[in-house]
TrEMBL record:
<keyword id="KW-0808">Transferase</keyword>
<comment type="pathway">
    <text>Cofactor biosynthesis; molybdopterin biosynthesis.</text>
</comment>
<keyword id="KW-0500">Molybdenum</keyword>
<dbReference type="GO" id="GO:0061599">
    <property type="term" value="F:molybdopterin molybdotransferase activity"/>
</dbReference>
<dbReference type="Pfam" id="PF00994">
    <property type="entry name" value="MoCF_biosynth"/>
</dbReference>
<dbReference type="GO" id="GO:0046872">
    <property type="term" value="F:metal ion binding"/>
</dbReference>
<dbReference type="InterPro" id="IPR001453">
    <property type="entry name" value="MoaB/Mog_dom"/>
</dbReference>
<dbReference type="GO" id="GO:0006777">
    <property type="term" value="P:Mo-molybdopterin cofactor biosynthetic process"/>
</dbReference>
<keyword id="KW-0501">Molybdenum cofactor biosynthesis</keyword>
<dbReference type="InterPro" id="IPR038987">
    <property type="entry name" value="MoeA-like"/>
</dbReference>
<dbReference type="InterPro" id="IPR036425">
    <property type="entry name" value="MoaB/Mog-like_dom_sf"/>
</dbReference>
<protein>
    <recommendedName>
        <fullName>molybdopterin molybdotransferase</fullName>
        <ecNumber>2.10.1.1</ecNumber>
    </recommendedName>
</protein>
<keyword id="KW-0460">Magnesium</keyword>
<dbReference type="GO" id="GO:0005829">
    <property type="term" value="C:cytosol"/>
</dbReference>
<feature type="domain" description="MoaB/Mog">
    <location>
        <begin position="19"/>
        <end position="162"/>
    </location>
</feature>
<dbReference type="InterPro" id="IPR005111">
    <property type="entry name" value="MoeA_C_domain_IV"/>
</dbReference>
<keyword id="KW-0479">Metal-binding</keyword>
Amino acid sequence: MLATIGVREVAVVPRPKVGVISTGDELIDDGSPLAPGQIRDSNRLTLRSLLRASGFEAVDLGLVRDDEAAIEAALLAGVLSCDALVTTGGVSMGDFDFIKVVLDRIGDMRWMQIAIKPAKPLAFGTITRSSDGVAVPVFGLPGNPVSSMVSFELFCRPGLRQMSGFGSSQLDRRSVVAIADEPLTRRADGKTHFARVWCEYDLASATYRVRSSGAQGSHQMASMAAANALAVLPDGPTVVAGDAVRVMLLTP
């Protein structure tokens, strides 16, 4: 199309290359049976899939054990080869985690508590790349799988889209107003809740309709896998059937 109108050159922005790293002696990723105290490293695979689906180049920086030297080496190697880094776990207030110690030493980080549920803890900062002095962004997401995915959608994906050259109106997922077909349960706690839901357009009523995709515990992955949207529930009482609610669509 450009050639037909005589355009020979266009300005482009490189696709960000994003490294994903998991740390922790409790994590395994080799498919072996779980020993007491172990959990499977699902976040690294999930985040790489989300990155690719969002148009970014995902780089697997591996699973690193709880060793400061090994974590520092992995982070610095990632900074040299990537445009941004994503880590999971060790961001909650009061957590002692090796990655937090290392990031505080080699980076310029902020450790935050956001008034949302799930995904309350968040870290963001930069590590300066030694080769060219560029400050490489680092997104520190919660270790809980559902919280990690919600944090990615709310904070990481918009930031990476801005790096990709998208304008301010194109950073967030598309939102619609939908009618709740059933109660979306919550309690007043000073936080905005992001409920996992299924949203679809109803031709008969010319409205979007929304219902829960399942149990909303932050450890319950099935409802996240079954969701195609997040309902934004402001602080307050339960949303009842028939109420209008803002919904962030997770699919194009």
